[in-house]
Design goal:
The chain is an alpha/beta fold and 194 residues long. It has six helices and five strands; from the N terminus they run βββαβαβαααα. The radius of gyration is 17 Å and the shape is globular.
Length: 194
Amino acid sequence: MRVLGIDPGLTRCGVGVVDVRPDRKATLVAVTVIRTPPTMPLEERLLAVGNGIEELLDAHTPAIVAIERVFAQHNLRTVMGTAQVSGVALHAAAKRGLSVALHTPSEVKAAITGYGSADKKQVQAMVARILGLAEVPKPADAADALAIAICHAWRGAPASPGGDGGADLTPAQAAWRAAERSSRASAVPRRLAR
């Protein structure tokens, strides 16, 4: 599965593309950060980010787009810019008939590190490890975009074939699989209780 992940931002918009096999092995396809200067008029900034996202969608033809879900922050200006860029990304994906998945920062952290409150350095280090990179992708927006793409692929990917119990999984993948199983197991009694 090829996933294009987006860490939306008006000044820096991270975009990462990964291929993920059914056994959850992830490979880097592309990563970049689309930048716009704060001095540029808002509509031109959104156009530049939108054009950059569209170029990457057309160049890499992902199966799905994953975007970090906008969450509340104290800085309203940052939230508005992030929401506007998310809208531009949603529009670009919809124009191409692509499905879009939204993931919260804590979902992404849990998928990548096994811990929903992991810090940025932990997430960046795991992204490099998962993708077999010698260095952490820079800036942080690039690593975040890759983490979002990996998160989505792992959440939607089937279990490792062959019934080996997941022996080839990274620690983060194993933790994610255990959390998935636990949430399914705890959901069953609730449904039966109704």
